[in-house]
Target: TubC N-terminal docking domain-containing protein
Amino acid sequence: MPYTMTRSSDGQENGSTVTDGQALRILRRGLHLHADVAADKDHIVTITRTRLVLHGEDTAERRTVLTLRPEPRAHRLTRTQYEDLTRIRKAGEAARLRADGRIGGMFCQVPPSAARRLLGRGLLVATGGDQISIGVAGLLAIAGFEHPVRTTTPRGWHDPENGRLPTTRQHRRHPYQVPDFSSTAVCTCGFRAAADRRPYAAAFARNHIEQVLSAALQNP
Ligand SMILES: [Zn+2]
Model:
C-alpha cells in the first residue's frame, strides 16, 4: 500500500510516491532528527522538522513538513489481524519471514496467506533479510483498533421520565416533551467527554483518536 508524500520546505512543495518500507524509514529518520510526528483520523502522517539555519549574520528558522497519505485509504483490522500484529510486535526482532511464507517468532505463527495480506497492505514491512517490522499503517491500525471511539446518539425531544409535564423549553412540534441534544464521546480505553451537542462530542472523539494515533508513531 503506497503513500503519497508531499514535502514542503521554503514555500516549495513537491509530491512523490513512496513504498511502505520507505515510509517506515522516513518516520524513523524523522524521529531520530527530533521532528514532530503526528497522525490524523484518516491516518495521514505529518512529520514536521524545524531547524535553525544561518541567514547572513543571523539565524533563521526553517521548517520542512512531510505528509504521508495512505493510498488507498486505511481500513480497519479484523480481530485476527490485530492479534497477529500484536504478537509480531511482541516478538520484536525474533519475528522472521520464513522461506515458506509463514511468519514465525517467539509467540507467533502466522500462516502464509495471512502473512501475505499483512505485507501486501503495508501493515508489516520487510526490513532487510528475513526481518520484518510493523509498518506505519500497522502502527496506526493497531492503535485504531484499540481505541474504537464513538459518540452517543442524542435523545432529542423525549418524554420526561418523571411523568411531569415540562414547564420550560417547550416546543410547539413536540408538546409535553423535553429536549436533550447532548452526546458523549466514549472509548473502550475509558476515555469519556460529554458535550452539549453531538458535533462537539465528535470533535472530542477526533482529538482522542489523533492523540492516540500520534502516540503510536513515536516508537516504530
Ligand atoms: Zn481510547
Q: What stands out?
A: Residues 147, 149, 187, 189, 191, 208, 212 surround zinc ion (CB under 6 Å). The CA atoms of residues 41 and 209 lie 6 Å apart. The mean pLDDT is 91.
